[in-house]
Design a protein that fits this description.
single chain; 156 residues; alpha+beta; 7-stranded mixed β-sheet; 7 strands
């Protein structure tokens, strides 16, 4: 069984730290594989700060945690981006993928976000892009100048 809850700090600090660390380290490794960053470089300071002190780094944002069969295994962050809500740090532990956990997180995040809602994803993350498209997100012109980043929005 899968459930999604809003993280409460300090209670969920260790869980958020672990999930953020996995997400950010995996993302940096993938970026290195695609030639966007130097392999084995230290995490950028802003990412290291998120891992070290997620309560402060994510203050003002809503962090959702997915639990499957009693194990915390997914995370997404919802924030106010001015003219839209923004979904970021969307992550599920690889060992539980394909069990609907990502869909549960995305559904909870979009319900919480309101409209419009936007997100960005690396082009090589095709399964995530397919999930976003199933939830009504459409590719839009990029608001971010990083190569290989796909920007999507949902207005309905």
């Amino acid at each position: 069984m899968t459930s999604v809850r809003v993280a409460e700090f300090p209670r969920d600090r260790a869980t958020v730290t672990a999930l953020l660390s996995a997400y950010l380290r995996t993302t940096e490794a993938e970026k290195a594989e695609h030639g966007l960053v130097v392999a084995d470089a230290p995490l950028p300071d802003r990412y290291a700060r998120e891992i070290a002190d997620p309560d402060a780094a994510l203050a003002g944002r809503r962090v959702l945690i997915a639990t499957h069969d009693g194990v915390d295994c997914g995370l997404v962050v919802v924030s106010d981006a001015g003219d839209a809500a923004e979904i970021s740090r969307f992550w599920t532990t690889p060992t539980v993928r394909g069990r609907g956990i990502g869909a549960a997180l995305l559904s909870a995040a979009t319900n919480l976000a309101g409209r419009p809602v936007r997100l960005s994803v690396w082009s090589w993350r095709e399964p995530a892009i397919r999930l976003y498209r199933r939830y009504g997100f459409e590719v839009v012109p990029s608001w971010d100048d990083r190569p290989d980043l796909v920007c999507l929005e949902r207005h309905e």
